[in-house]
Structures are given as structure tokens and as C-alpha cells.
């Protein structure tokens, strides 16, 4: 009996350490870093969208930008604008999804892990709800300006507005990727705008 318990302990510990060592490997590679966050959005929700981005299907009805409209022009001397969108995902209710065999095994290992090793750092609760990844492509910049939010709007901050104003006179492209997540797992979507919305920032009047 003692041998069996020791074997169980050793096997569980080895498995846990193996998973812990590989924990960082499943994070999406991004040379641009994480986006800005709004509402209840989390980095785990962002990773779920990054993993699924290639599968995003064009859909004009799920999320629709109400501001800005395509072709909109902003004066660089004006205050940072507020962008907003409507979404059919916003009225969605949590959709129960049966756990997969992998999820069940991961939960069991998590309990073992808490027993064997203390948690190194706290994670935010799993995200459930509609999520929106707004991406602004700026001419001359390798990385887009991005916001991940659970809200239906984005009040641009001063730093973001300064970045956009630096490309005054050029065309900016705004894309929105949306999805519904249940505990960090995408259950609906992701969707994207069929065509990005284009806007311009005009140099302010001296």
C-alpha cells in the first residue's frame, strides 16, 4: 500500500511539473505584446481569441460599428473620440458546454497541484461573456493599436489618441473581432467585420 501511494505521489508530481514547465509554451506568440484591456476582459480571453483568430468568419450582423462610420474624419485638435458598436452577442446567455476529457483531466491535476505545490500566482476568474477585440492598423507602425474589452464602447485615452494623430492625413483601418466565451472557451464565433472601417485624422487648425 505504501509503495502504491508513493508511486501515485511520484507520478502526480512528475505530471504536474511537466505541465507546469510547459505552461508558458501554450501562450500565443506575439511580437506586439498584449492589447489594452477594458471592462472585464482578461489576458486568458485574449489568448483564446489569438488562437482562434484564423477561424474568424466575416459577419456584418454580429458586431456592427456605430461609431466611427467608414470614411469618418477627426480633427487632431479635438478630444479623444469614443467608439461604439452594437452586437447580437451582448444579449446572449451563458451556454452550458459539456467538459471535454482534457478539461476533466486538467481539473483533477489542478487539485493534485494545489496539494503538492502552492499556487505561484493568482489567475483572474475564467471569463464568460461577449468579448470584442478592436484593432487599429496605423500606417508606418509594425504593431496595430489594440483594445480587448467586454464593453460595447471604447473611449480612446490620450496616449492612444496621440498615436493615431501621429499619422494625421493617412488612412487608418479599424477591425473588430468578436466572440462569446464560456470560461475562457469560445462557444460562438469568432466573427469579424467583412470589411474594416477606414477613418482619417486631419491635422488640427493652428
TrEMBL record:
Domain of life: Bacteria
PROSITE patterns hit by this protein: PROKAR_LIPOPROTEIN
Entry protein name: Lipoprotein
Source organism (scientific name): Myxococcus stipitatus (strain DSM 14675 / JCM 12634 / Mx s8)
Higher taxonomy: Bacteria, Pseudomonadati, Myxococcota, Myxococcia, Myxococcales
Amino acid at each position: 500500500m505504501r509503495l502504491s501511494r508513493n508511486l501515485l505521489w511520484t507520478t502526480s508530481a512528475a505530471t504536474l511539473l511537466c505541465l507546469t514547465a510547459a505552461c508558458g509554451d501554450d501562450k500565443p506568440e506575439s511580437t506586439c505584446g498584449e492589447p489594452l484591456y477594458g471592462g472585464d476582459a482578461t489576458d486568458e480571453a485574449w489568448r483564446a481569441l489569438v488562437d482562434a483568430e484564423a477561424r474568424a468568419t466575416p459577419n456584418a450582423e454580429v458586431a456592427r460599428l456605430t461609431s466611427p462610420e467608414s470614411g469618418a474624419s477627426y480633427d487632431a485638435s479635438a478630444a479623444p473620440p469614443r467608439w461604439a458598436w452594437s452586437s447580437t452577442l451582448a444579449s446572449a446567455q451563458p451556454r452550458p458546454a459539456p467538459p471535454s476529457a482534457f478539461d476533466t483531466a486538467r481539473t483533477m491535476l489542478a487539485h493534485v497541484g494545489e496539494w503538492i505545490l502552492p499556487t505561484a500566482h493568482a489567475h483572474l476568474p475564467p471569463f464568460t461573456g461577449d468579448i470584442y477585440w478592436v484593432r487599429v492598423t496605423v500606417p508606418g507602425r509594425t504593431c496595430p493599436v489594440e483594445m480587448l474589452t467586454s464593453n460595447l464602447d471604447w473611449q480612446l485615452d490620450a496616449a492612444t489618441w496621440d498615436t493615431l494623430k501621429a499619422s494625421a492625413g493617412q488612412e487608418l483601418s479599424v477591425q473588430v473581432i468578436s466572440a462569446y466565451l464560456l470560461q475562457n472557451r469560445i462557444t460562438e464565433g469568432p466573427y469579424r467585420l467583412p470589411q474594416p472601417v477606414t477613418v482619417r485624422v486631419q491635422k488640427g487648425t493652428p
